[in-house]
Every structure is written in C-alpha cells, then in structure tokens.
C-alpha cells in the first residue's frame, strides 16, 4: 500500500489523480482507500477500499446504445439469417470462447495474429478467431440485430494463466477467469480491451457487439465457471473480481456498452463444496 497523492485535512474536499490509462502504471483496475498520516509517519486507513465506478468517462466511443425494432431474440445460425429476419428477430447471442483468441508462441507474429500493445506489454491475438467471429457478426449487423456476446473459457494448457486456480478437471465445461495476480489481470484486461475496440467501434467495420455476458449460469459453478473446490462466498468474490475487470475494460472503450450476469434455475442444487 502506497500513497498516490495527499491533501491537507479539511471538512470536505476532492482529490484528483491521473488514471495513467494504457501505461504500465494504469490505475483502471486498482483499488483505493483514504488514509491519515500519523505523527510517526505511518498511514492509518479511515475508509474501506473501493474501485473505479465510472470507467465510461474515458471511453473513446460514446455513441447512443442501439435501439431494436423488436424484442425478439435468438442464438441465430447465420446460415439461417433470413429465417430469423422473417420471424422478426432483432437480438442475437454469440458465444465467444476466449481461448480461441490466445496464441501459441509460434503464432505470435503478423501472419497469424494481431499485435496489441496494452499498458506497456505486447500481446498477440488470433486473426483466425477474429475472422470466425466476424463471419457471424457481419450478417447480424446487416440485419440490424443487437448482438450479445457470452464470454467463455475452456480448459486448455495454453490458457492456464487465465484460468482461476490453474487446475483442470474432468466434467467441467468452462472455467472462471483468473485475477490471482497483476499479470493475469492485465492479460484479461488486454484481451477484453482488444475485443471491445474491435467490435464496439462506431463504424462497425467488423460487426458490432453491444451487450456482454461473463460466463454461463454462474451459480452452477461446478460445471460452468469452475474455479476449484470453493465455498459459494469465496467463489462469488472471485467471480465479482473478474466481472469488474471485464466491465472496466469494456466500458472504458464504449461508454454505453452493457454488461450482464447469466443465472440459471440451479438455486437449490448443492455445488462442489456443498456450502
């Protein structure tokens, strides 16, 4: 814990600090608290920790959230887009498996991947994964559909640093995202910023995503969003951390993007720990 700025004691006041956006010292995903400096030089906390609550203030894209002419929605097969149009469908969901955008070392070049520099670190995200997603998004854009992306993480060896707990097991469909250390938080934020910048731009050159959902049936965490053998309280805390990173990353690109949590009907079913 270190002070980022100081102000002399007053009955009320405002403290402003630089966000240092997209630098290695970025504070977008940091937490903050108010402390008083004692006579011996030590700091005493006088508030709880809090995170940034308005990342949309630094967004590059600020256009109005799109309005659909119908509330009908489906997870549309783009080969049957004309059928969806005939049914009046104007909302569609797409699954985005985040693993697909990650690259092996041999793919980290301009032939196979897009170079993306984020907060002082260079990442490479798969061109093939972008092309496959855009094959779905562009017909939906042409049909004026509002797209909701469901963000998922499979268990794969190349993704272990992004999987909570880093442990793979049989019977798990998808895993929760890691926020265990600064490196994993930064990598997750980089990937989400890359996706938001590519699919939220006002021209919608590659298609557009307006809504984002983190995970599937998040309370069914034995098979979806698996993070290890955890109590419900511990699991909820870890999921909330990853949700915040994804939320801040997307909203700091497109101010009117919307984030959602997926729930199921498993409210009375015991999960891995039974607690």
Account of the 3D structure:
Helices cover 22% and strands 16% of the residues. The protein is globular and about 70 Å long. Helix 4 links the parallel strand 10 and strand 11. Helix 3 packs across helix 4. The mean pLDDT is 88. With 275 residues, it is α/β, with parallel strands linked by helices. It is built from four helices and eleven strands; from the N terminus they run E-E-E-E-E-H-E-E-E-H-E-H-E-H-E. Strands 5-6-9-10-11 form a five-stranded parallel sheet.
Main attributes of the structure:
single chain; alpha/beta; 22% helix; globular
Residue stretches low in confidence (pLDDT < 50, at least 5 long) are: none
The ordered H/E elements are: EEEEEHEEEHEHEHE
Q: Mean pLDDT, as a whole number?
A: 88
Number of helices: 4
Distance, first to last CA: 33 Å
Strand content: 15-25%
Instruction: Provide the spatial order of strands within the biggest beta sheet.
Output: 5-6-9-10-11
Structural class: alpha/beta
Beta strands, count: 11
Helix content: 10-25%
What kind of sheet is the major sheet? 5 strands, parallel
Shape: globular
Radius of gyration: 21 Å
Question: What is the strand and helix layout of this fold?
Answer:
Layout lengths: L30 E2 L2 E3 L5 E3 L4 E2 L21 E2 L6 H6 L4 E7 L15 E6 L2 E6 H16 L3 E7 L29 H18 L11 E4 L17 H20 L6 E3 L15
Helix pairs in contact: 3-4
